[in-house]
Amino acid sequence: MKLQLEGVKSNRAALGARVKIDLTTPQGPRSIHRTVTTGGSFWGNPFRIEVGLGQATAVQRIDVYWPVTGGTQVFTNAGLDSAYRIREDSDHLYPVALKTFRFRDPTNAAHVYSHP
Question: CATH number, domain at 42?
């Protein structure tokens, strides 16, 4: 799952925003927590949250906490293996279509990379 957060009252890059994703898995409920950070030196990060969902069978809920306003948004209609844009002032998940690039290595094994 990929989430691109966009702050309105908080900073536009959503730095400091916290995300909690509640999942259903064969082993039972699971929660994943992430924080939007710069992620590296010289701001070498797209500020997008990318989360591997493992063996999840469903996304039950996504909570987004915004650092400046202290507000929390809750979304319950997200799909697995999806990409969304979330605006601080909106209660909608905006689907993002990702472009897929295929690369070949010398052994002819295909590599796939997705980018918005």
Answer: 2.60.40
In the chain, the DSSP E strands lie at 2-6, 18-25, 28-35, 48-50, 58-65, 72-75, 83-87, 94-95, 99-104, 110-115
12, 68 Cβ separation under 8 angstroms: no
Residue 18: domain span: 2-115
Domain count for the chain: 1
Nearest partner of 46 among 14, 91, 74, 92, judged by Cα:
14
For the stretch 6-39, pLDDT in tens is 999 888 889 999 999 999 999 999 999 999 987 6
Return the number of other C-beta atoms located less than 10 Å from residue 3's C-beta: 25
- Helical segments of 16-63, H only: none
Q: Tens digits of per-residue pLDDT, 72-92?
A: 999 999 999 899 999 998 999
Q: Calculate ∠ Cα 13-60-70, nearest 5°.
A: 40
